[in-house]
């Protein structure tokens, strides 16, 4: 899978300014065109919205020139409206392959992508969303927490068509060097049930691993017991993965990764960036 056209969402924060770094990595996945996009929130800007729109458009021209020097086709656009809806609408209108947003690891880009707005973008979008992570608060210190994010990726996996569909997308990302599959046994009444479930997963993941080997990927798998989101965070940190890739739907509680507090826990607490594929994509 290639990300030839990307919608970069900015709010002029230090974090969002650093999203340009991620674009350089995406060039290895076929990136050709970038739309740098900002939404002036009408509810907070009020009658000053047109003035803000003009000022911000001028500010984005520096980003445009920088990216054009890298050989990318670049457009800039600033809308007055409602952030989540306008971000999703813009992505669809431009037929982008990816929506790129940023986080400093404790919360999302201020205002535009804060809290429920961010999850509205993920929930409503039919386009994959990449949430970048940052550390540092000063402009000259702020940098991505994870570089070379496609070197080692974590993919939660179950028996669902959604998870298997995302696996097919991942196999199309030839820049990836290693894929770590994680599956959770969330419930069993007896030791016998647990053993049976583990054996079944061993066979399932073994077949997937062989398929990945034949496709040219190094891979491994880990089977855990307990809540999916907690296991994903634990394995991602212990195994020092560079990127977590999630499907929007799945069997068991993986399907809840994009609902309420579980989504907040996974996306905001993961030290690695998170790439989320909507179920429509699979």
Round the mean pLDDT to the nearest integer and report it.
81
Low-confidence stretches: 137-145
Structural class by sheet pairing and helices: alpha/beta
Gap between N and C termini, in Å? 12 Å
What does the largest sheet look like?
Answer: 11 strands, mixed
Radius of gyration: 19 Å
How many strand units? 11
Gross morphology is: elongated
Domain UspA: 3-131, 150-278
InterPro entries: Rossmann-like_a/b/a_fold, Universal_stress_UspA, UspA
Protein name: Universal stress protein
Family: Belongs to the universal stress protein A family.
Task: Describe how the helices and strands are arranged.
Layout: E1 5-9, H1 14-17, H2 19-26, E2 33-41, H3 42-45, H4 49-69, E3 73-81, H5 83-94, E4 98-103, H6 116-124, E5 129-135, E6 143-144, E7 152-156, H7 161-171, E8 178-185, H8 191-214, E9 218-225, H9 228-238, E10 243-247, H10 260-269, E11 274-277
Parallel strand pairs: 1-2, 1-4, 2-3, 4-5, 7-8, 7-10, 8-9, 10-11
Antiparallel strand pairs: 5-6, 5-11
Pfam families: Usp
Domain UspA: 3-131, 150-278
Protein name: Universal stress protein
Task: Describe it.
Pfam families: Usp (PF00582). Residues 3-131, 150-278 form the UspA domain. InterPro entries: Rossmann-like_a/b/a_fold, Universal_stress_UspA, UspA. Belongs to the universal stress protein A family. This is Universal stress protein. The radius of gyration is 19 Å and the shape is elongated. Helix 5 runs parallel beside helix 6 and helix 9 packs parallel to helix 10. The protein is of the alpha/beta class and 282 residues long. Strands 1, 2, 3, 4, 5, 6, 7, 8, 9, 10 and 11 form an 11-stranded mixed β-sheet that branches. It folds into 2 domains: 5-144, Rossmann fold (3-Layer(aba) Sandwich); 152-281, HUPs (Rossmann fold), CATH 3.40.50.620. The chain contains 10 helices and 11 strands. The protein has helices spanning 14-17, 19-26, 42-45, 49-69, 83-94, 116-124, 161-171, 191-214, 228-238, 260-269, and strands at 5-9, 33-41, 73-81, 98-103, 129-135, 143-144, 152-156, 178-185, 218-225, 243-247, 274-277. The model is unreliable at 137-145 (pLDDT under 50).
């Amino acid at each position: 899978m290639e990300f030839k056209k990307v919608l970069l969402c900015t709010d002029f924060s230090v974090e969002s300014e650093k999203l340009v770094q991620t674009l350089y990595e995406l060039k290895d996945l076929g990136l050709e065109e970038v739309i740098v996009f900002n939404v002036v929130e009408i509810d907070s800007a009020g009658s000053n919205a047109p003035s803000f729109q003009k000022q911000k458009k001028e500010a984005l021209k520096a980003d445009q020139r920088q990216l054009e020097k890298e050989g990318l086709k670049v457009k800039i656009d600033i809308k007055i409206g409602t952030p989540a809806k306008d971000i999703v609408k813009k992505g669809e209108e431009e037929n982008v392959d990816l929506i790129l947003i940023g986080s400093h690891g404790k919360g999302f880009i201020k205002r535009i992508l804060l809290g429920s707005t961010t999850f509205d973008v993920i929930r409503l979008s039919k386009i994959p969303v990449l949430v970048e992570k940052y550390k540092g608060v000063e402009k000259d210190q702020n940098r991505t927490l994870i570089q070379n994010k496609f070197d080692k990726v974590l993919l939660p996996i179950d028996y669902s068509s959604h998870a298997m569909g995302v696996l097919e997308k991942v196999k199309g990302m030839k820049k990836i060097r290693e894929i770590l599959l994680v599956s959770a046994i969330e419930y069993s009444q007896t030791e016998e049930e647990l053993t049976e479930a583990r054996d079944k997963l061993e066979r399932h993941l073994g077949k997937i691993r062989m398929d990945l080997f034949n496709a040219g990927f190094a891979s491994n798998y880990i089977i855990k017991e307990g809540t999916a989101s907690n296991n994903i965070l634990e394995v991602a940190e212990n195994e020092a993965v560079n990127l977590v890739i999630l499907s929007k739907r799945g069997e068991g509680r993986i399907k809840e990764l994009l609902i309420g507090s579980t989504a907040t826990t996974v996306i905001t607490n993961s030290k690695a960036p998170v790439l989320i594929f909507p179920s429509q994509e699979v």
